[in-house]
Amino acid sequence: MSDFYARPAPLPVPPRLSPQQAQILYLIAEGHCNKEIAAACNTSLFTVHEQTKRLYWRLGAKNRTHAVTRAFRVGLLR
C-alpha cells in the first residue's frame, strides 16, 4: 500500500488558525477556487496560495479535500 492511502496521524487538538486562514478554510470547504477566495478575502492569489499551503501543513493534509475532512474531524468546521 502506498503512503498516499495511509491514514494520517490523528490531530490531538485543533490547530490554531489566523482569522484569514479560517476564512480561507471555510471558503475551500464551500468549493471555491483560489481566484474566488482571493476576491472574497480582498487579497492576492499569492496570499491565498501561501495560506492554503500553511493550512495543509497545520492540518497534516495533502490536498483540499483532505484538509476539509481533517478540519471537520477536529471541529474547525461544522
TrEMBL record:
Q: Name one Pfam family in it.
A: GerE
Coiled-coil features, chain-numbered ranges: none
What is one process in the GO biological process aspect for this record? regulation of DNA-templated transcription
Named from the GO MF annotations, one term is:
DNA binding
Keywords on record: DNA-binding, Transcription, Transcription regulation
Q: Where is the HTH luxR-type domain?
A: 10-75
PANTHER family annotated for this entry?
DNA-BINDING TRANSCRIPTIONAL ACTIVATOR DEVR_DOSR
Protein name as catalogued: DNA-binding NarL/FixJ family response regulator
Q: What is the lineage of its organism?
A: Bacteria, Bacillati, Actinomycetota, Actinomycetes, Micromonosporales
